[in-house]
Amino acid sequence: MVELGQWEKALAVAPGVSMKYWKKLMQRRADQLMAEDNDDAIPYCIATGDIKKLVTFFTGRGQLLEAALIAQVLESGGVGACEGNVCEELAEWYFQDGCSVLAACCHLAVDNVQLAMSSLIRGNELELAACVGIVLGEAANQSTVYCLELLARKYMTTPTWEVSADLLHMIPDNYILLAKLCAFYPGSADEINQLHERCGLPLSEECEALAEVAMSEGDLFSAVQFHLLSSEPEAALHIGIEHVKEQLTGSDWTVDSVQPILDLMSYIRTDRLIMAKLTEARSELLILCGYIGGLLAIRRQYSSIVPALYEYTSQLLKRREVCVPLKIEQLSVELDAWRACTQSNSNSPPSERQKEEFSPALVLCGADYVTGSNLPSHSDVQLSCFTGHRIQGPVFVLEDSKSAISHNDALMWAKVNPFSPLGTGVRINPF
C-alpha cells in the first residue's frame, strides 16, 4: 500500500503489526511530506512526538515564529538549546529587517542579555538600551557603559552639554571620558572652568603646568590630555601625532596601542582644529584616524564602510601635504587583501577569536541596522557619497547639507572614526 501511495490505509492497519512499526511508518510519511514542502507533515510530527523535526521544518521555511512557539512547547520549564537556537535565528531576522527592539525581546526571552543589549545598541536604540542595561544590572554592565558613552557623545552639543556630563557620571572610572567632554566644550573661559569644576577636573589655567609635569614623568597620554584641557590645546596635537607616527614606523604596533591617543586627540575643540595654522596637524590627524578607523571597521565587521574609509584616507594623502608613515600603495594592497578574504564569505558571523578579543564583543561586532533600514526611499532621492547608489532607509546628511550617507553607515563610521567623511575636521554625530 505504501508503494502504491495509499499511506492512509497503510497507517490504519500498521498498528496491527506493532506500534513501533506504525511510528516508523508515520515518520517516513512525515519525511516524504516535508520533502514536498507540504503542511500535512505537521500532524504526523505531532502524533509521533517528533517536535525537533517540526522545528527544523518551520525554520527551513523561514517560519521562525512558528518554530519558536513549537520549541517553547517542547522545552517548557526551561530554556533548551533548541529554543535558544530558534530565538537567535528569529532575533537575527528581526534585526536584519530593522526591528532591533523585537530582536532584543527574542534574546531576552532566552536570557541572552549580551545579545539583547547588542541588538538595541546596534539598532541605535540607545536610550532604551541604557534603561534596560541599568535594570539588568551586573549582567549588562559592559554593554551599559558602552551605551552611556555613545549617549554622552550624542548630547555633546548645545544646549545639552550638562546632560552629557550627567550620563558620563553614571559610568565608573569616568575621568578620561569627562576630560574628553571638557576638552571638546566650546564655551567661554569661565564656562569651560565651570564645566571643569562640575566634572572634577583642574581649571584650564592649571592644566598646562600639569601637562609639563606628566611629560617629564614620561606619561605621554596624560600630557596630551592636560594640554587638551588647557587654553592652548594645539600642543596636544604636536605631541600626540608625533608619538603615533613614531609607533607606526615600527613593526610591533597594534591598533589598540595607537587608537586610544588618537581618540583622545579627536576631542580637540573644532574651532581650534580648523584654524589655518593647524592645517598640517589637522590633515595628519584626519589621515591617521581614517587609517586606524579602517582597521577597526575590519575588526568589527563594518564591511559596508571599509572601502570608504580606505578611499577617504587615500584621498587625504593625495591632496594634503603631510608627513606620515603611510603610502597610498600600502592602503591599496591592504584593501585588496581584505576584499580577497571577505569575498567568499562576506556575511560570516563574528569568529570566536573576535568574540573573545573585543569587549563587549557582541556589541562591537556586526553591522548596524536602525529602525526602518529596509524601507524604500521617498520621493526626495538621496545618493550615498560612499557608493553613489540610492540610499534605502533613513538618511544622514553631512555638514555641507548636500552630501549624504545612510544612517547605518554614519553610525558605523562614527564608532571607528569620529571625523566627518568630508575631511573638514568636523566631528560626526549621528547618534
UniProtKB/TrEMBL annotation:
Pfam families xref list: TPR_GEMI5
Residue span, Gem-associated protein 5 TPR domain: 11-140
Top-level taxon: Eukaryota
InterPro entries hit by this protein: TPR_GEMI5 (IPR056421)
Name by which UniProt lists this protein: WD repeat domain 17
High-level lineage: Eukaryota, Metazoa, Chordata, Craniata, Vertebrata
